[in-house]
Amino acid sequence: MLSFKKSAVVTALLLIMAVLMVGCNAGKETAQPVTDNKKNDKLIVFVSILPQADFVRQLGGDQVEVSVMMPPGANEHNYEPDTGQLKALSQADLYIKVGHLPFEDAWMKRFISTNRDMLVVDSSQSIETIDHNPHIWLSPRLVKIQAETISTALIQLDSENQDYYLQRKQVFLKELDKLDREITATLSGVKDKSFLVYHPAWGYFARDYGLQEVAIEEHGKEPGAREMSRVINYAKKNQIKTVFDSSQHSTHSADAIAAELGARVVLLDPLPADYMDNMRKVAETMATELSRE
After folding, report:
1. What fold does the segment set 43-184 form as a domain?
2. What is the pLDDT of residue 118?
């Protein structure tokens, strides 16, 4: 009888141990990272500015994970990435730079040394820039060329999803054509063609839509007294009533010139997160301001 009881106890202990081992193994099977983009088969893409992130998401859809190097409100002339961004960059598959941005020129070698396996693509390739002006994203017509470059890079890294990327590119290009037509119509009847800006971000935009940009700042530097006088005389002669500025730059000179002219300062966003919506707003704002009596 005693032998039977011992046998029963041993059997029970073995059953308990088996259950515990199954439980431990089950825990190990479910303890897998769920936020690892590599395991989710997404391309990790870094871009320099917010509008590029919008372009990549439009073109890459749910096959990409996008990070922006320069946060909202930062200035492209003096921005410095932090250590957290450089650490995250070490996991990237692709970096898409604007081309000719001052902070890119200063940091690109460091970015490449951080991740030598990362593909680096210049979105300004195939684009004839004006005096190294980097603001090519503010022309919907030039964004079409950038879209081709970005799409080609995505396909190079993820050829299995080529059809997916090509389909999204065609949709995006059609949306850009529609945006271009809308801006053309909005600005077609403006009274004055010259507009005054603090930072020369809108040169390509002006060229596309028959306008003339006059900038206060040049190459990221505040204007001297002689340049301020020249700009003020030009604005008075052309009866300019609005000075356009942006939140990314100092408004000191813009405010001073506006006060001298009896004009007002109006902000435009050259670094939008929602590209299409912002560009429509820019066109409407310019049309209103350039037609004011």
Report:
1. Rossmann fold (3.40.50)
2. 98
